[in-house]
Amino acid sequence: MDEKSIDKDVILKELDELHNLDHNYADGRILGSMCTEAHPFAKEIYYKFLDTNLGDPGLFKGTKLIENKVIESMGEILSIEKPYGHVVTGGTEANLMAIRAARNHARKYKGIVDGEIIIPESAHFSFKKAADMLNLKIVEADLDDNYKINVGSVKRLISDKTVAIVAIAGTTELGLIDPIEEISKIAYENNIYFHVDAAFGGFSIPFLRDMGYDLPVFDFSLDGVCSITIDPHKMGLAPIPAGGILFRKEEYLDVMAVDSPYLTVKTQSTIVGTRSGAASAATYAVMKYFGKKGYSKLIKELMDNTQFLKENLEKIGYEIVCEPELNLIAFNHPNMETNEFAEKLEGFGWKVSVAKCPVAIRVVLMNHIKLNHLKELVEDLKEIF
Ligand SMILES: *Cc1c(COP(=O)(O)O)cnc(C)c1O
């Protein structure tokens, strides 16, 4: 740290220089990210609520009410009237909370000590962090030929140590939706906690279903679903860090509660202590601003862009890994190794990401990627081919 105060202009210049090293969404060149530029109104509100602390909700009663409203609104699109939950930093923290709730619940009511969680091979790496922190063993269910969780495999992996089963609504690598209704039934019949990770699909599947897209049910309308992760900072256009964890019953929060002696409330169930209410307020603002109609229109555009890219890829001769279900396409060059193909694309100035299972280039059709960017991409792909 400097001894003396530095002039603001000097600091700004240094920060701007460093910020310039970042890629920006507006270029439309970031193809592999699930994040995008937040809506300007959400950013404005974010700044306004920056100093609020939801870690001490007795001092910030109004902001706490806003968090409750956000959870309720997200609950509405996830088919639950009275959800319990929190606005958290993202999908990772939401998944961590879900698994912590499941573990504590199983410990308290079933006496399970060395617990296991069943997750699909396609699960986000946040579950590895959760298992590590919570001392749980991961048991991986196979995928079927369509890269979705194999229901038979889940059945076979259930044991008297299983504390949770996880399925995904919008996988990170391929954007696919697991057969959640079937898994929900199995979890319900076996009295096992079932968590749905809809970090990616939570802000799109409900609207797409309402518009008539043929997508499966994945939410609290299924009896077995105990909790859902949903990320406003992906297609919800809220500023990072905004995640959501919703529980069906209050007891899942209760089993995580620890005493919080010096605060205005007696217990705390969140992992984070001091936490800004900015994400809650900004998420509330952007959800109100768009409404179901606004989000539907946004998501429809993303799906149209996905269709555009898919048709053009096929026209030129690229191989699509699977039929896209959401705004994500994974594809390969028919006779070029994926990493070499990725390097070629990087050479053209595209920021791509490579999926591992199966190995393929993945493009997440987020809001910053416009049709004109896709046309440029298709031209470059023609040249590479
Ligand atoms: C993005 C994502 C996560 C992780 O969310 P973060 O906000 O990056 O912590 C978890 N699960 C799925 C399915 C995701 O797509």
Automatic annotation (TrEMBL):
Domain of life: Archaea
Gene3D superfamilies registered for this protein in UniProt: Aspartate Aminotransferase, domain 1, Type I PLP-dependent aspartate aminotransferase-like (Major domain)
GO MF: aspartate 1-decarboxylase activity; pyridoxal phosphate binding; tyrosine decarboxylase activity
Required cofactor names: pyridoxal 5'-phosphate
Claim: Cytoplasm is one of the keywords in the record: no
EC number(s) reported in the record: 4.1.1.11, 4.1.1.25
Pathway(s) of this molecule: Cofactor biosynthesis; coenzyme A biosynthesis; Cofactor biosynthesis; methanofuran biosynthesis
InterPro entries: GrpII_AminoAcid_Decarb, MfnA, PyrdxlP-dep_de-COase, PyrdxlP-dep_Trfase, PyrdxlP-dep_Trfase_major, PyrdxlP-dep_Trfase_small, Pyridoxal-P_BS
GO biological process annotation, one example: carboxylic acid metabolic process
Keywords: Decarboxylase, Lyase, Pyridoxal phosphate
Residue(s) carrying N6-(pyridoxal phosphate)lysine: 234
Reactions mediated catalytically: L-aspartate + H(+) = beta-alanine + CO2; L-tyrosine + H(+) = tyramine + CO2
PANTHER family linked: PTHR42735, SPHINGOSINE-1-PHOSPHATE LYASE 1
Function, as annotated: Catalyzes the decarboxylation of L-tyrosine to produce tyramine for methanofuran biosynthesis. Can also catalyze the decarboxylation of L-aspartate to produce beta-alanine for coenzyme A (CoA) biosynthesis.
Family the UniProt entry places it in: Belongs to the group II decarboxylase family. Sphingosine-1-phosphate lyase subfamily. Belongs to the group II decarboxylase family. MfnA subfamily.
NCBIfam families: tyr_de_CO2_Arch (TIGR03812)
Protein name as it appears in the record: Probable L-tyrosine/L-aspartate decarboxylase
Species whose genome carries this gene: Methanobrevibacter gottschalkii DSM 11977
